[in-house]
Amino acid sequence: MKKTFYSLLLLIAFSLLIANRADAKIKLPGIFGDNMVLQQQAQDKLWGWAGANAMVNVTTGWDHKAYHTKADAQGNWKITVSAPKAGGPYQIAFNDGSPLTLKNVMIGEVWFCSGQSNMEMALRGNSSPILNAAEIILNADNPQLRLCTFHTANSLTPLTDVQAQWNESTSETARNFSAIAYQFGAILQKKLHVPVGLIVSSVGGTMIESWMSKGSLAAFPEVKVPPTILDTVKQPWKLPTALFNGMVAPVLGFNVKGIIWYQGESNRHEPQLYGRLFPVMVADWRKQWGLGDIPFYYVQIAPFGSTDKTRSGPLLREAQLKGMDAIPNSGMASTMDVGMEKFIHYMNKTLPAQRLAYWALGKTYGIKGINYLAPAYKSMEVSGDKITVTFNNAPYLTTYEKPSLTLFEVAGADKVFHPAKATIKANQVVLQSDKVSAPIAVRYAFKEYVMAELYNNDGIPASSFRTDNWDDVR
C-alpha cells in the first residue's frame, strides 16, 4: 500500500514536471504568426513568453542573424530585430530549448486599421451589400497582401495578448475582411510594389471613449471610467477604455507605418465632446506606440438620415474636419458623396478606401501627382448682397455638370439661413439670396443627409462646413 502511495506521488510529480516543461515552451502573442508582415527598414520588436529566466534565441531568415535575450522571472521576454528592405518570404526561428518557427513572413508596409462598423464591415456585406464586392473578391488572390483581424476583446485593464491570425489574401480570406481596409491595402500594394500587411481592430456600435486609455480620459470628468469588473455588463465593448485595453494595448509594441481610422457615428450626438476627445486619443496612441507622429488618416462620417433636426451629423463632420488642424500628420477622407439616407452602412466602400490611399501614397510615401486634398474653405468677402467664398486645394471647382448648386445657404444678422444661388468662378463660389440683403455667414451641405455637389478637379468632394460659430445651428 505504501509502495503504491509513493508510486502515485512520483507519478504526480513527474506529471507536474512535464506540465511545467510544456508550459515553459516559447509562446508568442496572437499578433505574431505565419504569413505576417513586419515593417521594412525598421527596428521591429518581437516578444512573448518562455520559462522563467530562460535564454531565448531568435534567428531572422533574411540575414541569418542570431539575437539572444533572457526571460524574466515571470517568463516575459522582448527583443528588437533589424528588418531589411521589403521582401520575403522568410522564416523566423525561436528557441528556448524548444524550437518554434514562423513561416512565410514578409517584410513590407504595415497599417493598423481601427474603428467601428463601417471599418469592420466585411466585403461579404451584411444586411447592406458592398458595391462591386463580387468582382473585388474574385480578384483578391495576392500573396503580397496579408490580412489580420482581431477577435473582439474587452477589458478594463490592459491585456497582453489578442486572438488573431494572419492570412494571405485570397478570395476566401478577403471575403471576410474589412471592405475599406482591404481596398486601401490593395491600392498601396499595387502602387508601392511591396508586401503590405493590414491589421484590423474594430467593433461595431462603439464610441471613441471605448478606444481610449484610462490615462487619456483623466482630463474628461464627464466620461465615467467604470471599475474593473465586467461580469454583469451586457455590452462591455461600449464601456470607456474597454477596447483600448483589449484590442490596442496588447499590440502597442508592434511596428506599423501608420493608422487608418473610421469611427464617429456612435458619437454623433456629442459632437463638441468628440472634437475634444479625438486629438487626445490620437496623441495618446502615438505616445504609447512610441513611433512618433506616425500618419493618422481617417474617414469622415457619411451623411445619413433626415429625421434628426439637431444637426448632429454635420456637427460631428465639422469636429472631424477640424481634427486635421488639431492632429499633426493627419488627413481626412471626405464621404459626402457616398452616404445613404436610410442606411448608415452605405454600399460604396471603394471611394473612402481610395481617398485614404491617396493620403497615404501622396503624403506619407511622397508619390508625385497624387492629390489627396479636398476643397477647403479659405475665406469669404462680402460685397453688398453677395458673398464670395474662396477655397483652398481647388484651382478649379466643379459640380460635374450638375445644373446648379443647391446646398449653399447664407444668413444675415438675424441668423436665419436661406438657400442661396451659387455661381462657380474658378476656385470661388459667389452666393446671393433675395431674402438676405446683408449676408454675414455661409453654410454648405450643413444637413444630416445630402449628396455632394462641390468637388475639385481630382474628384474629391468638399466637406460640409459653416463660417459661423452660432450655438443654435438649426
TrEMBL record:
**Its GO biological process terms?**
carbohydrate metabolic process
Q: Which Gene3D superfamilies does the record cross-reference, listed alphabetically? A: Immunoglobulins (2.60.40.10), SGNH hydrolase (3.40.50.1110)
Per its UniProt record, what Pfam families does this chain match?
SASA
Q: Name one GO molecular function term.
A: sialate O-acetylesterase activity
The answer to whether keyword Signal applies is: yes
Q: Give the highest taxon in the source lineage.
A: Bacteria
The positions making up the signal sequence are 1-24
Q: Which InterPro entries match?
A: Ig-like_fold, SASA, SGNH_hydro_sf, SIAE
Q: Which residues form the Sialate O-acetylesterase domain?
A: 109-346
Q: Which of UniProt's keywords are assigned here? A: Hydrolase, Signal
| Record protein name field | Sialate O-acetylesterase
Q: Which organism is it from?
A: Mucilaginibacter mali
